[in-house]
């Protein structure tokens, strides 16, 4: 009896570990795709790879762990957005507003951040390797004293 229960639990644990956890709200994803307005939306872990969201309103949106690889977010307003652990590899963020955004451990490698606003943004552990960063208040290494 105990052996059957143990095997069943082991199988369930394996299935649950192999199944990716998705926490985004599908209605919020649809709203972003159709209107470009998703202020305060829950897009946690959403796959938004190569999305074209020029000028999108993503103020205070939760994009933690979201895949935004190759996304075009030119002119998007991400003020106060949570982008912790987000994948923004090769994303286009020219003229985007990232004021007070949380970019902790975000991957911005090969991204374009030209004239992006980052006032008060949290940039701990952000990866900007091979990124184009101009006029954005983001710098790599050391202090500027």
Using only C-alpha atoms, the radius of gyration works out to 18 Å
What do we call the CATH topology?
Pectate Lyase C-like
**Order of helix and strand elements from N to C terminus:** HHEE
Across the major sheet, the strand order is 1-2
Q: Count the helices. How many?
A: 2
Q: What is the assigned CATH homologous superfamily?
A: E3 ubiquitin-protein ligase SopA
The geometry reads as globular
Number of domains: 1
Mean pLDDT value: 86
Cα(first) to Cα(last) distance is 69 Å
Assign the CATH architecture. 3 Solenoid
Which range best describes the helical content: under 10%, 10-25%, 25-40%, 40-55%, 55-70% or over 70%?
A: 10-25%
What's the level 1 CATH class? Mainly Beta
* Total strand segments: 2
Residue stretches low in confidence (pLDDT < 50, at least 5 long) are 2-21
**What would you call the structural class?**
mainly alpha
The main β sheet shows up as: 2 strands, parallel
Portion of residues in beta strands equals under 5%
């Amino acid at each position: 009896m105990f052996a059957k229960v143990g095997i069943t639990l082991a199988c369930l644990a394996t299935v649950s570990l192999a199944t990716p956890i998705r926490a985004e709200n599908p209605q919020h994803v649809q709203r972003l795709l159709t209107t470009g307005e998703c202020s305060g939306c829950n897009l946690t872990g959403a796959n938004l790879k190569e999305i074209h969201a020029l000028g999108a309103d993503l103020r205070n949106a939760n994009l933690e762990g979201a895949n935004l690889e190759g996304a075009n977010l030119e002119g998007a307003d991400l003020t106060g957005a949570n982008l912790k652990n987000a994948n923004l590899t090769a994303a286009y963020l020219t003229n985007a507003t990232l004021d007070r955004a949380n970019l902790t451990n975000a991957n911005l490698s090969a991204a374009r951040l030209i004239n992006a606003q980052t006032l008060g943004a949290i940039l701990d552990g952000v990866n900007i390797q091979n990124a184009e960063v101009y006029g954005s208040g983001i710098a790599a290494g050391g202090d500027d004293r």
